[in-house]
Amino acid sequence: MQNRLLSGDMPRSTVLALILGAILLCLAFAPFLFPGVRSVDTAARICIFIVLVASYDLMLGYGGIVSFAHTMFFGIGAYGVALASTHMGRGFDALLVGSASGALVAAALALVIGLFSLRVPAIFFAMITLAVASAVAVPVSQLSNLTGGEDGLTFQTPRALGPAFKFGDELFGVRLNGKLLAYYFVFVGALVLFLLMLRVVNSPFGRVLQAIRENDFRAEAIGYRVVFYRVAATCLSAAIAALAGSLYAVWLRYVGPDTTLSMELMIDILLMVVIGGMGTMYGAVIGATLFVVAQNYLQNLMGAASDAVAAVPVLPELLNADRWLLWLGVLFILSVYFFPTGIVGRLRGARA
Amino acid sequence: MSDPILKLEGVFTDIAQYHILQGVDLDVPRGAVTMLLGRNGVGKTTTLRTIIGHWRARKGRILLDGEDITTTPTPAIARLGVGFVPEDMGIFADLTVEENMILAAVSGPLDPNRLERVFAAFPPLKTFWRAEAGNLSGGQKQMLSIARVMAEERRLYLIDELTKGLAPAIISTMARALRDLKARGASILLVEQNFAVAKALGDHAHVMDDGRVIWSGAMAELAGDADLQERLMGLSVEA
What we know:
Oligomer: heterodimer
CATH topology of chain A: ABC transporter involved in vitamin B12 uptake, BtuC
Structural class of chain A: mainly alpha
CATH class of chain A: Mainly Alpha
CATH class of the largest domain in chain B: Alpha Beta
CATH topology of the largest domain in chain B: Rossmann fold
Helix content of chain B: 25-40%
């Protein structure tokens, strides 16, 4: 059962298995374990970023394809849901139409970019994706009447996913309302997408991708059409990123260029993949969890630390909550320095 | 030498601005081992890579069983039944031995009988079946590299530098495996620096120099004529 769910791709390290199990439990029961708007919001973001980062890993870690257009696909999914919900009115049909068309558009765009540019060396492909991503981001922030411009779009999701919807009283002190349902909508969606990707990378298709990443000429000489596999991986990855974007839109009930299309977000994704460990899928889980938690709570932690050392000179200044980005940066440099193969690579290496 | 499995007619190949092959003509007879010999840098590896389509011939024709494959894409050539063992072995280090073998069988699942034969020829592959190929020793990697082309029936085997950098014990394992392959009627084009191995395995030989085939004939004839070897390859072979 477990083996089948994970497609035979076991964590292969006790520590890793424990960490993953803990993350899964925390996310599965987040609204009950950590009640509070902010912590549940953090948990939902973690779910969504796990999918987004894993889909990037599918391309980078398994296919060896460097792309900077991943946030564009993410944004397409998010805007798909936003536009459908705006124009069709709130409802699950709008969500379905929005996310399905978002995924299709993302895959189609990936197909076009891939066919045109996956034959050229990796660096050119990366540059082309960067150009396309910028070319898409600009009109999105300018076409105010369609996309809401820089302000983005606020829209309504199905009533059942809104805080006003109540389906019971309280369970363990948690209100049984639509927000809770929305969280589980995101959680289940993310879980299904993640298991799907795990299946893909462990399928014969995934093996060929890994072979191509390692030695593309050799893979061709065995009889695999490298361009076909690379394009397929890019399309799949784009479609899943778009679905992650749809989940994000459902959760936030808002889309805007900054939350879905920014270059900053792209760099965050890259960091999450690298910190977690490329080409492992599970790295996405750890990278995304660590990153999102740090992003949301490092500031508080530092505020507390700064107060605690208030009597010492200089230190409180360094630990001032406003310096959180500095420390986040230091943490990343250290983690890349000490875990060049990512946290998952490190944990698996320690076992061997 | 009638009805060869592979025929090269006046093949010219450039790599960047260098004219590496300058009109290679050669035949690979069916069901025999054909040696491609010559000093370093005369174009032996380039010839194999041109056949498989890694480099493209600027001029000339390459015929597999009479079918022109000069401009056929590499994966399609492979699926026509051309198995290629590159000189750098090119195994997939991140994948297990098993996964390497599964990938090598492009046209379907691995045949268990065939696998038994591979294990018989290369016992370490059975031992390390589920280990990552990157953790194998150099000799074992070469075994895997040969085993991969044995994963399926091929019409033609192209093997580059079978014994390069291998310990003598492993060289004889390799030679035995090829002899088996040959006994089953395989057609093999083999680039080999080790003249003793070439002598033991080869039926026919082509000697290259400066991007051309300068001598073709029976391997036995070449092996028995030290002057000829000296003249063609600058070798002074002891045995």
